[in-house]
From TrEMBL:
Taxonomic source organism: Thermomonas beijingensis
A Pfam cross-reference name: BSH_RND
Biased composition (Polar residues): 392-402
Name of the protein in its database record: Efflux RND transporter periplasmic adaptor subunit
Annotated keywords: Membrane, Transmembrane, Transmembrane helix
Family from the record: Belongs to the membrane fusion protein (MFP) (TC 8.A.1) family.
Amino acid sequence: MTSHADLLNSLKIDRNAVPPASSRKGLWIGVAVAAAVAVIAGGAFVLRGGKVMDVQVTEATAIGAGGSANASVLDATGYVVARRMATVSAKVTGKVREILIEEGQHVEAGQVLARLDPVDANAQRTLSAAQLSAAQSQSASVQAQLKQAEADAVRLSSLVKQQLVSRAQFDQAIAARDALRAQLVTSQRNAQVARDGLQIADNGVDNTIVRAPFAGVVIAKAAQPGEIVSPLSAGGGFTRTGIGTIVDMASLEVEVEVGESYIGRVQPGMATETVLNAYQDWKIPGKVIAIIPAADRGKATVKVRVALDAKNDPRIVPDMGARVSFLEAAKPAQAQAKPGVLVPASAIVQRDNQDVAFVIRGEKAERHTLKLGRTLGDDREVLSGIAGGEQVVQSPPDNLSDGTKVRIAQE
């Protein structure tokens, strides 16, 4: 009869016992089936887009194509100057009666800018007019006397032939006639002199009116009503030498100083690009007008005149600072070259013996085949395949492929 102890011992599992062959085979089959199920489930997970790869991105920077017409061979600084600028003054000394200009006002050629007190000039003109009138009256009187003398000479000529008058009387009449003829010529010349004097007096009156010599803009107002102005300095602080300053804005240009070592790079007619210090984002095209054939011994520079294509633009004013870039001419073979982009060299990898990069499109990575150009430091020039501003995967992993779902990782 089996005891209770034997019954309990029969329930223990012997771990050292070797299982039957059929049991081990079933165990390996179960493990293989479980692994296959896991692989299939994982593949289905990937196909459904459930796998997301974290990547870091960088932005492609657009650049100009090398050797373009916009390549600068030299930069220089200078100032805006006016080829036509005048400080307008009166031709005579006088007291200002009226000022008709203000700073910033546009004036036309011949426009009245100011008037001086014309009292003295008007008095001189009145005197000249009176002298002309007197000379003309004297000439008319002599002409009347000459007419009578010529008639007497003709009458006595007939009488002397008839021996009704003496020869002496006839000769006396002829002398009186000739004397009056000479007086008439003198009086006529005196009248002409008086007429010229009146014209000079008229010019004197006109000189009290100050006019603009050319069309332009008033940049300075130098006198006020009641002040004394003179074309010459009177040596005191109470006499003005000018009414105002006018600038022809159409004649504005830039004058720069180029070092002697670099003046060989500049040629007349060369294309330029000017940037004013006040407007850094405004690039004004132009060209070299002339190279002044003289050097500054102290500064070892040569002056260059540069024209601006922007004419009469109110933003350009005299004495404004400017930076001028002298541009080289475009080469024919590269004139139509398209601009490329710069991307880090680490973003470019080799796949199937091709240079490729992965561009972010929405939530996926797109594989782009590239045409590479120059190496610029840690960057590469991409001539085609990527546009400026596109996001490119930085250091693409080996398992990154076209269409992989990605997520931009925060640095």
